[in-house]
Design goal:
Strand content: under 5%
Strand order of the largest sheet: 3-4-6-5
Helix content: 55-70%
Distance between the termini: 27 Å
Low-confidence stretches: 1-55, 176-211
Largest sheet: 4 strands, mixed
Shape: flat
Mean pLDDT: 78
């Protein structure tokens, strides 16, 4: 698999596809060059060439820093999908794999893994520095089982634990002939059509050399397959899950499915890889997955991927036309329709589709029915916020996860008096300080209550978690100048300002160790 986001769509600026997407630069090459403008047409001629990093892989601190910078940019992309329910589902799979993955890890490899989503129909997933794993919604749509998704994660996590990413980054940076500008164009060419390719190749033969440099070696891929299978087996997944995933890719490619092209170009699918996986895990097919939660997440991914009204309408019609094989699929198809109808503003029709989904779900366990209950409360929230808040509070008491937590916060914020929302969010940000959404919601609650110094502090925390350290520091300085903070709040603001200034200084020191 190629390290980076070679199949992430570049932004379109002023009617012209931007070929200098910063995110791609961060993923394709070390970002110590600090390229910040993705619009300048003469970028390639004005950028410096890469310097020589130290021999071997990047240090864990350098790798972590690169991951932070990449994710700061990723969160600004229009295809970045903020959906806590889908992310909860995927993160649960990763968390189950994590203990086994840690036992296979190199000493300086990341020990924690974080999932994020991109709204993209292609079958793709990719690992980034610092333990980040990106997932296209198309992967959830095209997978046939929970176990196949787990196999993809085990493979990507193994690229991280075996330090393949850090090694490739260091190798790329050692070649002084590769300029940042040409890297940007080469990666952008790989991510788009022939027009983009022509622009990339206009730089000369460097594009092909860069394209090769960004690929993992065959031994890296075999290593990730082998280690991934060990992680799967130790985590309690079926031994044939990896082979099943590879066979699914083979099946999709035989159908000439363009949506699988991205994954196949970065994960060359060879008969050797499939045979090796079958030799280790067996060639017995996985049994059909009847898990309601898997199929609900499959339908949710289908419902959240389209972005235009016409595309949403087409997908809703496809879901109506689907022929279900068993009750879990029937419930999922109706649920997918309900989500799409909600997005289209057809709330009564959405409620009717949801009722069909609930009926098809029957007596499924409450944990698997959670997406249906969340949608019911979302629809209730439009007209009856007090009842929605009560229902959300009861649901959160049973299933305390980010999706239910965020919904309860939204319901409380919809009430006329924001005091309940503020009190709930204060507690939740203490218990879950890494949750960006909670800090953003707390800022809204504080603003509504006139606590503007506290609002700026909450905004600062959200910025800090997004990697925007300078903006976070500025928010805290504004908070210090804003009247109304009590002694306790003022003390927290001062302490956090010192912490972030110290963190910023450390980041700058790490940046200095990276090749210039």
């Amino acid at each position: 698999m190629r390290f980076a986001l070679p199949y992430f769509r570049p932004r379109r600026v002023a009617g012209q596809t931007a070929v200098c997407l910063l995110t791609l630069a961060l993923c394709a090459t070390p970002v110590w060059a600090q390229v910040a403008d993705d619009r300048a047409p003469g970028l390639a001629s004005s950028l410096p060439t890469l310097g020589d990093p130290a021999q071997g892989a990047l240090s864990s601190a350098q790798e972590k820093r690169l991951g932070e910078i990449i994710m700061r940019e990723m969160r600004q992309e229009p295809d970045y999908l903020h959906d806590s329910l889908l992310r909860d589902y995927l993160q649960t799979i990763v968390d189950r794999l994590t203990p086994a993955a840690r036992r296979t890890a190199e000493i300086e490899a990341p020990k924690r893994f974080h999932v994020f989503l991109l709204r993209d129909r292609s079958f793709n997933a990719f690992a980034l520095p610092g333990g980040w794993i990106g997932v296209h919604t198309g992967l959830i749509i095209d997978a046939q089982s929970h176990d196949q998704i787990a196999a993809v994660f085990a493979h990507e996590m193994s690229h991280i634990t075996q330090r393949h990413i850090a090694q490739r980054l260091a190798q790329i940076g050692r070649d002084k002939l590769l300029s940042i500008g040409s890297l940007l164009l080469a990666v952008a060419a790989a991510s788009a059509g022939q027009d983009q390719a022509a622009q990339g190749l206009a730089l000369g033969g460097q594009a092909a050399a860069i394209d090769n440099a960004l690929r993992f070696s065959r031994s890296n891929e075999r290593d990730a397959d082998r280690t991934g299978e060990e992680v799967l087996a130790e985590s309690g997944y079926p031994p044939q899950a990896m082979a099943s995933m590879l066979l699914r890719l083979q099946s999709l490619s035989r159908l000439d499915d363009s949506d699988v092209l991205a994954f196949l170009q970065t994960h060359p699918l060879t008969s050797e890889r499939i045979a090796d996986a079958q030799a280790r895990g067996g060639n017995q097919p996985l049994p059909p997955d009847h898990d309601l939660m898997f199929w609900l997440m499959h339908a949710r991914a289908r419902a959240l991927t389209p972005t235009t009204v016409d595309a949403m309408r087409r997908e809703q019609q496809r879901l109506r036309a689907d022929k279900s094989a068993f009750p879990a699929q029937q419930a999922a198809e109706a649920y997918g329709q309900a989500v799409l109808l909600q997005r289209l503003g057809r709330f009564d029709d959405s409620a009717q589709a949801l009722a069909r989904a609930q009926a098809a779900a029957g007596d499924a366990p409450a944990a698997e029915r959670l997406p249906l209950d969340l949608l019911r409360i979302e629809l209730l929230l439009r007209h009856q916020p007090a009842q929605a808040a009560d229902a959300a509070r009861a649901l959160y008491a049973r299933f305390a996860q980010s999706a239910t937590r965020h919904l309860l916060a939204r319901c409380l914020l919809a009430l006329p008096d924001k005091t309940q929302a503020r009190d709930f969010l204060r507690l939740q940000t203490v218990e879950h300080p890494q949750d960006i959404v909670l800090w953003q919601d707390l800022a809204r609650a504080q603003s509504a209550l006139g606590a503007f110094a506290a609002q700026h502090r909450a905004t600062a925390e959200a910025y800090a978690l997004q990697g925007k350290t300078e903006a976070a520091i500025e928010q805290l300085r504004i908070a210090q100048r804003t009247p109304g903070a009590d002694y306790f709040e003022a003390s927290i603001i001062a302490a956090r300002l010192r912490d972030l200034e110290r963190a910023q200084a450390q980041q700058k020191q790490i940046d200095k160790t990276l090749p210039q």
